[in-house]
Amino acid sequence: AKSSRTISIDTPLYQIEISEQGAAVKNFALKNYRASNQDNAPLKQLVTDILTDGVFLLDLSRQSISGLKTAVYTAQMDMDHLRFSSGEKTLAFTAQTPQGIVVKKIFTFRADSYMINCDIVLQNGSAMPLNDAITITIPGHYDKEVKSRSRFAFEGPLAFVNKEFLTIKPDDIEEQDTYTGNIEWIGYSERYFMTTVLPRQVEGTPLPDTTLKLSYADNRVTSSLVYPMDRLDPGKQGVYPFTFYMGPKSQKILGDYDNSLKAAVNFGFFNMLAKPLLVIMNTIHDYIPNYGIAIILLTIFIKLVFWPLGTKSYKSMNA
After folding, report:
1. Inter-axis angle of helices 291-305 and 271-287, nearest 10
2. In which band, very low, low, confident or very high, does the pLDDT at 2 lie, cut at 50, 70 and 90?
3. Cα separation of 54 and 60, whole Å?
4. Which of 80, 175, 259, 293 has its CA 20 to 30 A from that of 97?
5. Number of DSSP helices (H) and strands (E) in the chain, helices first
6. Predicted pLDDT at 274
7. Ramachandran bin of 201, using left for φ above 0, alpha for ψ from -120 to 50, beta for the remaining angles
8. Mean pLDDT, rounded, of the chain
9. pLDDT tens string 27-55
10. C-alpha to C-alpha distance for 165 and 230, rounded to whole angstroms
11. Strands 81-83 and 6-10
């Protein structure tokens, strides 16, 4: 039982605060986005005050180590604030149980990416083997207001399971709260932003089948990724790599990553038509940074593409 610090990391893309209490992310502000379209609006915050425990909490599903979710870690850094503008920085949080098991969460931040690597290391210094599964939790706030907004653009739990993109309505969780198979990522989506966790594959080692566990109570949806561990005998160490993404649901940004996160930008029935148009519009916006003009130019482009068909149709109607 010791006091805990909060470590702040400042990159060109975001400001993140990680508490030694659970080594959980307590704040995440996006520097390039505002909470509203007003000039004096605060930065967009992805971890609201309602999510008091933070996100990316670590636990073991069979509770082989009790109290791990609320354990107080020690940040391996003397300062409480870290700022960098290029390259990458690593920050480790370490906790030790009374049984002698050492748990580490090692974060790696990159100045030019919303992706944050997190390696979870378990060192078994006890006299008993450790045979359990790692659980990483992402909570989300889902009340009547959010439910009403979600009718027009989905908000809630989402995942990529067995090569299929899933959006899961919280009201349907009671009917099915578990998904198992090849889970490439899970997360929670707002209208324009999302928070996700991805198991990171080590070269030459296939990812094991994992499980998504969901719960919904008291206006809170909890998505938990359950990742099976190999048996860890006394004196042995296991390393389990994950990647966190907290950022915009932007086709342009997500398209630069070598994973399936880009599937989260989904237009439903119109997906095959809307995505190419979105790419063209964003390309125009790169050269003329005004979406009004970009939409006008996109409309003219579509008119030109269909001009031969339109002309033929007009001639046919005239005849």
Report:
1. 120
2. low
3. 17
4. 80
5. 5, 19
6. 81
7. beta
8. 92
9. 999 999 999 888 889 999 999 889 999 99
10. 28
11. parallel
How far apart, in whole angstroms, are the C-alpha atoms of residue 157 and residue 167?
6
Name the packing angle between helices 307-318 and 291-305 (round to 10°). 60
Token representation of residue 162:
């067995």
Q: Are 46 and 30 in contact (CB under 8 A)?
A: yes
CB under 8 Å to 280, separation ≥6 — which residues?
A: 298, 301
Q: 93 or 38: whose pLDDT is higher?
A: 93
- pLDDT at res. 118: 97
**Mean pLDDT value across residues 191-203:** 91
DSSP 8-state code for residue 203: T
- Identify the CA nearest to 115 among candidates 7, 223, 18, 200: 200
What one-character-per-residue DSSP string does 6-33 give? Answer: EEEEE-SSEEEEEETBTTEEEEEEEEEE
Q: Count CB atoms within 10 A of the CB of residue 97.
A: 16
Q: Higher-confidence residue: 2 or 150? A: 150
Spatial distance between the Cα atoms of 255 and 249, rounded to a whole number of angstroms: 10
Q: Model-level pTM? A: 0.88
Assign 269 to helix, strand or coil: helix
Do 5 and 20 meet the contact criterion of CB atoms below 8 Å apart?
A: yes
From residue 188, alpha-carbon distances to 230, 260, 310 in Å are 28, 15, 44
Asked if residues 105 and 93 have their Cβ atoms less than 8 Å apart, the reply is: yes
φ, ψ of residue 270 in degrees (nearest 5): -95, 15
| Span 192-212, average pLDDT | 89
User: Is the pLDDT reported for residue 138 higher than 80?
Assistant: yes
Reported residue count of the chain is: 319
